[in-house]
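Worked example

This section walks through a single chain of length 417. The input is the sequence exactly as stored; nothing has been trimmed or padded.
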Amino acid sequence: MATFTYIIKDVKGARVEGVVKADTMDLAVDKLSKEGGTIISVKAAAESAYKNKMTLFDKLAFTVYKIRTGVSLNTLVFFTRQLATMFAAGLTIEKAISDLESVEKNKKFKKVLRKMTEDIKKGFSLSEAMEQHPGIFNPLYISLVKAGEISGTLHTILDQLSEYLEKVQDTRQKVWSAMAYPIFILVFLAVVVWGLFYFIVPMFAGVYGRMHADLPAATQIAIHISNVVKNHVFITFFVVISFLFSMFIIYLTDRGKYVIDTLALKIPVVGNLMKNSIISKFARTFSILMGAGVPIMDTLELSENVVQNAVIEGAIRKSRIMIKEGYSVASAFKKTGAFPSILLQLTATGEETGDMDTLLLKAAEFYEKLVDSVIERLTSLIEPLLIVIMATVVGTVIVVTYLPIFYLGMAMRSGLK
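Given that input, the structure is written out below as tokens.
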């Protein structure tokens, strides 16, 4: 006898999830129908359970595939919004995608839309056509479209999906706007320091060498670094590239990703900004999936795939196991210790009232406001802080380089012996 997960609305209109055992899907549906209520979805439990983990090679191959075939989030947001508008206006999906393909300027995405139009003409559903292009449409996107097709509310789902993607894009832009200036300054600082060691320090090293002066330890270290930078440019470049590539490979591993993401969340101010952004994205994803009628286990699995932080992913994974064992969603979240109190309170209230999707949407909006406030503080504090850091680093290199000149008389006497 097989096990099936189900979502129904009872006679009072409350959402109810659970499992039912039956020999076939049809028998499970019949069993639920006799109990009353409106069936939203019935699915084999195995389909909503855990998927096999990707190997490191699979992750690397998929990353390369996404880079080769993917499009920008801005392109996807525009496509989703246009598709929602055209479908709501009465156009068929085939006609809407065909029209969007005719005006699309991105060559890669234009080719994808052409292929989707051909697949839909062959009898594919929209979600099935999208499944052929995993580099563009992620599991969350496809699951929502599939839920809309099953429930007959595709136009509503597309509207919600476009709003969701716009919020994700807006949050991402805010985070990047806060990080762009410090990244630029740090890159500029690295170039300046490299220039000092490549051009300036060797000039002073030659002068000190002709004097046969006894140099301070700090100056000797600076000259040694300069020799490495100047005489081994290609080796240094290769080492840097190899280090970055190694970090990328390490990040693809489960353990490496967990360590790096844990450290990232502990960075002062920035870590808090990242966590609020992740929680906001998680809450909004959870809300839109629940509202679309996606089963709780699938909702958690899809949410786990979109948060893009191993610490929160691990917490969601533990929650799935506990919920499967009978814990409530709020209790499972609380036991992981990874979710903030506001989210836990709203989740618990949502479970009690049967309005979890609405309350989680409020949680998402609350954490988005926190992100905005942190970005405003960062904008006002980061500029003077970076100026101090840049002045300290460059000043230290210059002082170390000029240090022997402060003892010029001693250096000259040493050179005359």
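What to look for: The chain has three domains: 2-48, 73-166, 167-243+254-417.
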